């Protein structure tokens, strides 16, 4: 199998796992901050045990450790907004908003990586923006969730671009270890402060929720980000973000299957989703036909 095809298969596997992630805020009764806190702690512990059994020691310079830890903190901020978007709306709305990652990447990548600005990528990303606008203006029940989802997409676009810079010549395994460490430290500092000003009656998972958290930590965190970071080494940040636009498709299918969300979604939602999918296929066509790019 050609190496490029293998990388795209791995990329879409990560997108599939990411789409499945959207189910957990509905499966777990804890608020979005506590879910992310438990997720990071469990993922860090699981990955640390994996490192011990593989007899791998994550060796890095102090400068890189700090850099990776900060990336982990940025990732947790994205996750809190992403889970919050789903908590205040539904799975379908939350994952649809994620499709704006490509739009924000169009702006962040040239600024941070000093690459050429692509007006073609901007044009087709604006189609996805039009889809979100359509849902926002006509499906008013979920506006707050949509706003949280848009912020989440912007933060994840930043994470993707900075991760692309930080990973050059670095081991995906080392990066993930310190990103999970940084995320765990950040959430352990932030969560008590958040709970002091936003107290909740439910702080600990109940019964089957521990099982959902372990699945979330292993499959949708450790495995997902190992694949994701590795793929970023071979593919551009925009290509990775573009494939991420398919997350709404997987997420919506899962939401309909597990939560029967179809009856909650209006015609404007499907029209907006259609525009987003058009954006995905149009940008994919451009990437496969570089002669028509600017």
Structural account:
The structure is a single chain. The model has no long low-confidence stretch (mean pLDDT 84). The longest helix is centred in the N-terminal third of the chain and has 26 residues, at 62-87. The protein is built from 13 helices and no strands. Helix 4 runs antiparallel to helix 8 (143-166), helix 4 (62-87) crosses helix 9 (172-197) and helix 7 (119-138) runs antiparallel to helix 13 (267-288). 78% of the residues lie in helices and 0% in strands. The protein has one domain (3-292). The chain is globular. By secondary structure, it is mostly helical. The two termini are 31 Å apart.
Q: How many domain modules?
A: 1
The dominant shape is globular
How many helices in DSSP terms? 13
Strand content: under 5%
Q: H/E order of the elements?
A: HHHHHHHHHHHHH
Q: Between the first and last Cα atoms, what is the distance in angstroms?
A: 31 Å
Contiguous low-pLDDT stretches (5 residues minimum) are none
Number of strands: 0
Tell me the helix content. over 70%
Question: For the residues shown, what is the average pLDDT?
Answer: 84
Structural class: mainly alpha
Main sheet record: none
Gyration radius, rounded: 19 Å
How would you name the oligomeric state of the polypeptide chains in this document?
Answer: single chain
Write the layout of secondary structure elements.
Blueprint (H helix, E strand, L loop, with lengths): L2 H19 L2 H4 L4 H22 L8 H26 L3 H7 L3 H13 L5 H20 L4 H24 L5 H26 L10 H25 L4 H8 L2 H13 L7 H22 L6
Helix pairs in contact: 1-10, 1-12, 3-4, 3-9, 3-10, 4-5, 4-8, 4-9, 5-8, 5-12, 6-7, 6-8, 6-11, 7-13, 9-10
